[in-house]
Structures are given as C-alpha cells and as structure tokens.
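Two records follow; treat each independently.
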Amino acid sequence: MDQDIGISDQTSLNKKVATALIINIYQQAKLGLIASLLCASIIFYYLVNAIDNTVLFSWYFSVVFILFMRWVLVKVFMKFTIKEKNLNLWKELFTVGALLSGLTWGATGSSWFLSESNTTQQVMIIVILAGVSSGAVPILAPIRNAAIAFSLAAIVPLIFHFIFMEDHKYNVFTLSLIIYLVYLIILSCKIHTIIKNSFKLQFENQALIRSLSKAKGELEVTNQKLQLAATHDPLTRIANRSLFEHDFKKAIERAERDKKFLALFYFDLDHFKEANDLYGHNAGDQILLTTVDRIKSILRDEDIVSRLGGDELTVIIEDIRDIESVSDIAERLCEAVARPLVIEDNHILVSASIGISIFPVDGLDMESLLKVADRAMYYVKEHGGNNFHFNIQLEQQKT
C-alpha cells in the first residue's frame, strides 16, 4: 500500500515537472522569437545586394512566417487554462516549430548564402548562426528535443557545406563545427537536467512544506487533545481535579488581592450509586452529563464547574456580594438537579447534597476550604440530602 502511494506521488511529481517545463519554455519563447527576427533582418539587410533576391526574399519570408506561426502558438497556449490536458501535443508542436526555425537558419549555411570569394560574408553568417544557435539552447532547453532539433537543423547544413568544399583549409572549420554541434547537444541536455531538477526540487520543497504544515496542525490538535485529557474530565468535558486545584488556587489569589468573598460548592449526588447499579453505567453517564448541563444553566460563564471523580462535583463562584446571593444560587442548583430525568423510558430521581465554604471566612487556602465544604456536604447527607449547608462559622457570623 505504501509503495503504491509512493509511486502515485512520484507520478504526480513527474507530471508537475513536465508541465512546468513546457509552461516555462512557452513563457520565455517570445524573447527568442524576437531575437531570431532581429538576426534574420540583419542578414537580410546585409545580403540584399549580395545574393539572388528571389532566394533571399523566399528565405526571409519563410523565417518571418514560421516565427509568426510560433508566436501564434505561444499566444494560444498562454490562453489555455488547463494546459496539462494536452501536454504532449503542446510539446510536439513547439518541437516542430523549433525544428522548422532551425531549418531556416540552416539554409544560411548553403552555397546560396556563403560566397567562397567573400570571406567577410562567410564570417558574418557563421558568427550570427553560431550566436543564434548558442542563444537558442538555454531558451529551448526545457524541451530537450526542441533544443537538439534546432541545433542539428541549424548547424548540420553548414557542416556539409564545408565538407563538400574542395579547399582543404575548410577542414578545420568542419571539425570545429562538429565539435561545436556536439557541445550544443551536450549543453542542451545539461541545461535541461538543471532546469528539470530545479522544478523537481521546488515541487518537493512545496510538498515538504505542506507535509510539515499538516504535521504541525496534527501535532497541535494532538497537543490540544492531550492538554484537554490532562485537565478535563473525559465524560463531561469540565475541569478535572488537577485543573480544579489550579483554578481554585488562582481564584483564592484573586479574591485575596481584591478583598472579595469566594464560594466553593461541593456536590455529591443523592441516589446516584443506586441508579448507576440499577440502570447501568450508560444511564449513570447520562445522569452526570445532564446534571452538569443543569448546573451550568444556573451559573455565569465565568463560574468554574469541575468533576473531582465519581459523582463529586464542585463549583467555584467568585466576587460574592452577600450571603443571600450564595443561598439563592444553592437553592436554584438543588431545584435544577432534583428535576426528574427520563433515560431510556426510565424515570430517574437524583438530587444534590451541597456543602458550601466561603473565603476568607472558612479558610485562607484550598485545603481548608475543601475540608469545610466536604464536612458541610456530609452534614446534608446525614440529614436526608437534596439540600445545601453553610459551615458553623458562617452561620454564627450570619446570626
């Protein structure tokens, strides 16, 4: 399976590279076409009075016509939105255009253009032909066959021209041109490989960046899940004991700094164990979820609800104004929790025994406040449950 995925990725990469090479050569083709037209115009101007005008005009017309058709091909290609659809066709059309242009330049290496008696004319044409050929290689190299076809078509006629000349002094030119042609072909292959590898590296880097971004996103999600698992109850999604202790200490620090009261509500659900044993753990989970939702509906968004374990829940309420407000909240919480639940057609009744401690009346640290609230909760349990209770110190202060 992994091997199939790797093959698929490699095929996709190769297709992207092939597409990029063809797009690249079409994008920069205009510069080469303009340069070819300028060079052809120079030869035309220089030879207009030196050779048969019929031959010269026919050659120049052929050059202009082929360059024009290649220009049209480039314009049509650039307007296509989905170039990958006919990739091979565009590649072949461009190669044919390069070959035809090469043939027109190769014609300048014929006896019609090269006069044995005019060395200056020969040198000028050879220099321009060499310049056009060397300039065409980097432009045509993205399509290797196009670069090679142009080079062969442009240089081979000149080689044969010198081979068939009787004067042996041209043998040096022949050998030099053969070496130059081989050099152009090797250069075309080298530049093609460099450009191809450049695109390949670019796409691989892009894929790597996408992969790293995806991995980073997945890692962040995983870290968030781990953080959530470490600080929140997996069933109710409220704070667990660890986060409760952290939040409670911070809340005490804020209350101490701002000289305000803080209330801790310690819950234990009445008859929860019986319902859990009778109706099953799924029903017990649903009781806890519903109870937490009911508790949240009574509280403010900033109030902190936690599950310490089993059916033990806590609520931290900051910025307490007076004792009456604490009693009012406790009454509403008891009423909300005690409402009947219907789970799988079963009517279930649970209630809450709530012990309450107040900072700083009942203690100045988390441990003291927890002990007071725990004792108050057990006091409610012992007196039938479904109620709340303040500790003795608060009752004395209240009276």
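The next record belongs to a different protein.
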Amino acid sequence: MGFLEVALQIATIIMAVILVILILLQVRGQGLGNLLGGEGGAGGRTRRGLERTVFQITIALSALFFVICIFSAVASRA
C-alpha cells in the first residue's frame, strides 16, 4: 500500500466525518416540527446567510468526496 493510497483513505475518512457533521447541522436547523411534516405546506424556503453558506459548502464537499472516492478506487487498482 503506497503513500497515495493511504493519503486518499485518510482524506476520505476526514471528509466523511465533516459531511456528517454538516448534514446534521442542517437537519438541526430545520426543526423537528418541519421534519415531521409540521409547519404547513409544500414549503420551499429560502436559505440565507450562514445557513446558505453551510448548504453550499456541503454540496461542494460532497462533490469533492465523490471525486476522491473514484480516484481512490482507480489508484488502488493500479
């Protein structure tokens, strides 16, 4: 197992933990009532400020996580 493979595995683990934390922060911000269907309607709501920034970071990090996972799989075959 080479240095690159170990580095990719460590990066994958760290990014997975950060993604879980970011997703849990977003769910906590929604509130339990909204999670269970309360507070009416089909309701798309607009994200603003810090909530929007966390949402955008989550999307970017998940795309990067996907790319690193694919690169790690390719590197482990070589």
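Discussion point: The two ends are 11 Å apart (CA to CA). How would you locate this feature using only the token line?
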